[in-house]
Amino acid sequence: MAFRDVLNIEVAAGNGGDGSMSFHRAKYMEKGGPDGGHGGKGGDIILRATQSVESLERLVGKRKFKAPNGGYGEGRLRQGADGEDVFIDVPVGTTAFDEDSGKVIADLVAVGQEKVIARGGAGGRGNSTFTSSTRQAPRFAELGVPGQKRRVRLELRLIADVGLVGYPNAGKSSLLAALSRANPAIADYPFTTLSPILGVVQRENADERFTMADIPGIIEGASEGKGLGLEFLRHISRTRLLIYVLDVTRDPVEELRQLQAELRTYDATLLENVALIALNKIELVDAELASMVEDDLVHSGLPVLKVSAREGHGLPELKETLFQMLPEFELWAERNALELEPDQVIEAPLSITFRIDPAAKGVGIINDGQPERVWEVHGGGFQEKLVRFSRYMEEAAEYLGNLFKRQGLYNALKRAGAREGDTVEIGTFRFEYFDEDEQDRG
């Protein structure tokens, strides 16, 4: 199965279960009290980073994930069961984007790291919750909240200590094979490597190692998506140290300039990474020419090591230099790992707009032939609260009226200019406005 580093999926968390509207039933008890239990929470959709998945190919063929809903509440104060969470295992280095907003919603950089990308809805409260001194037998309950739904783009960005940067056929695969236990395809033509390959480099006579990535060769215009373009640059973004692999038989100085220009265009911070130059294929030129090219490259400010991946010249020195130059992993992880807070539902600020509707003709409300004054309420979380009682709207009217009064809706309408008998519209819900002060004076 082919290596896959980008995948679009759809996720839907579970809906919260509805609260129960129930009354206690027992022998010799004609009218028992309310005993409706709460609904269960819907299951979350969770990304989990694992080392056992080497690419996103494991997800191919399954593009939609749905978590179970929470169970309904029942009588005798029995709460509905919570829906089980659904885990999606992805490789370490996976970043998740919300397709609609473009926002990063997860960035998994360590084995076992988890991130909720779609939250299950809260369960509704049973009618036992809504009793009061004046409401002994509430005949309404709260409905569960729908779970989050998202279109998500997953991108795998390999986490490697060392990344090999170079044009096609510069000898990156040969260098990886010579330094590590990796076994990449090697041939004398461009784009032999079509997928990122990881190898482990072991220090001689020591229990120290690092990972090295051979990533598909870059070409001019890669930062604009040409050739393997962004597929290459995406994977290089996490490396701690870059090796510019340059072919001594071509024009190494110009190739270095072009490589750095592509990296700068894609992400200028990549040029801040620790880096060195591996001047490869020195077995193909005489020593004097190799030294002249080395002198020209020194002006870049980067260390230059002359190597031959094919014959092994300079590889022990290169390996030891890499171990000495690699930044401490802990410092790098602290700088790059994103600590993403759980998604918070933020109520939109309250706004009230006024409109005049023409008098209804034949159907609907006839307001003595006069245009209807309508106040549209947006934000403040009022529509969300109404939806949760939509099945019991008539029975819950008093409770909602008192709730909205405490939350300042009526005062806001009055300040906006609402008059007795005006219509208030909240989403699909409409009701008549009345001024309590006017009622008290009457």
Automatic annotation (TrEMBL):
Record: residues binding Mg(2+): S173, T193
Tell me the ranges covered by the OCT domain, including all copies: 355-435
Q: Does the keyword Zinc apply?
A: no
GO:BP terms for this protein? Answer: ribosome biogenesis
Question: Which co-factor is required?
Answer: Mg(2+)
| Entry binding sites for GTP | 166-173, 191-195, 214-217, 280-283, 308-310
Q: What is its main location?
A: cytoplasm
What are the GO MF terms of this UniProt record? GTP binding; GTPase activity; magnesium ion binding
- Keywords annotated in UniProt: Cytoplasm, GTP-binding, Hydrolase, Magnesium, Metal-binding, Nucleotide-binding
List its EC numbers: 3.6.5.-
User: What are its GO cellular component terms?
Assistant: cytoplasm
Q: Which residues form the Obg domain?
A: 1-159
* Residue ranges of every copy of the OBG-type G domain listed in the record: 160-327
SUPFAM superfamilies, per the entry: Obg GTP-binding protein C-terminal domain, Obg GTP-binding protein N-terminal domain, P-loop containing nucleoside triphosphate hydrolases
Top-rank EC class of the record's enzyme:
hydrolase
Classification via InterPro entries: G_OBG, GTP-bd, GTP-bd_Obg/CgtA, GTP-bd_prot_GTP1/OBG_C_sf, GTP1-OBG_CS, GTP1_OBG_dom, GTP1_OBG_dom_sf, OBG_GTPase
Q: Where is this chain's protein located in or outside the cell?
A: Cytoplasm
Q: Which Pfam families match?
A: DUF1967, GTP1_OBG, MMR_HSR1
Known partners and oligomeric status: Monomer.
Under PANTHER family, the record lists:
DEVELOPMENTALLY REGULATED GTP-BINDING PROTEIN-RELATED, MITOCHONDRIAL RIBOSOME-ASSOCIATED GTPASE 2
Stated family: Belongs to the TRAFAC class OBG-HflX-like GTPase superfamily. OBG GTPase family.
The protein, known as: GTPase Obg
Species of the source: Deinococcus cavernae
Name of the gene encoding the protein in the UniProt record: obgE
